[in-house]
Amino acid sequence: MSAATAPRLTDRKREAIVQAALAEFREHGFAGTSMDRVAAAAEVSKRTVYNHFPSKEDLFAEILLQLWQRSKALRPQLYRADEPLRDQLLDILGEKLKLMTDASFMDLVRVAVAEMLHTPERAQAMVARLGEKEAGLAHWIAAAQADGRLRPVDAPYAAQQLQGMLKAFAFWPQLAMGQPPLGKAQQRQVLADSVDMFLRFYEPMPGPR
């Protein structure tokens, strides 16, 4: 095997292990998943699994890291004073909605949430890091407030309200109740309605003429 081929094969095996572990963690939970089962599902030797991940904890940490990286990949939410607020919010939340309707992302979320319920300390740090990503919308709202285009209220509270409207239809039903992802038309409706309701409440009332 050439030196150029070896890394690619190693990467493929590592990815196969991660995907197999994701399926095992989803079906059996952290406690019920073994490295033997992961190796069999990935069609690699147990030694190969341990070469990549010294322990089951390391393997689970890799899954959480991928969850973090998918969230981190969202574009920066920069406020633009020369563009309509509605267009900017549709763009920002549209990116979040794409992530929420990504099947592999939701698989990772289910694993993390399930383990957080059983062993909170194991997933607590990663969940806190994921929460940092949610702060981007609050910063955008604060910038719009400073520009006088939104009412001066607590920006993190307002951001949580807006994201909560989106998640109520596009995240929690799929995560907790196994509902299918929203179709394209439903996504557009939920996205537009959430943004419009938010702006109707938080945009300043026009002054008297």
TrEMBL record:
A GO molecular-function descriptor: DNA-binding transcription factor activity
Pfam families for this protein: TetR_C_7 (PF14246), TetR_N (PF00440)
Highest taxon in the source lineage: Bacteria
Membrane-traversing stretches: none
Family annotation (InterPro entries): DNA-bd_HTH_TetR-type_CS, Homeodomain-like_sf, HTH-type_TetR-like_transc_reg, HTH_TetR, Tet_transcr_reg_TetR-rel_C_sf, TetR_C_Proteobacteria
Feature: DNA-binding region: 34-53
Keywords: DNA-binding, Repressor, Transcription, Transcription regulation
Signal sequence, renumbered to the chain: none
Domain called HTH tetR-type: residue spans: 11-71
Name of the protein in question: TetR/AcrR family transcriptional regulator
Organism expressing this protein natively: Paucibacter sediminis
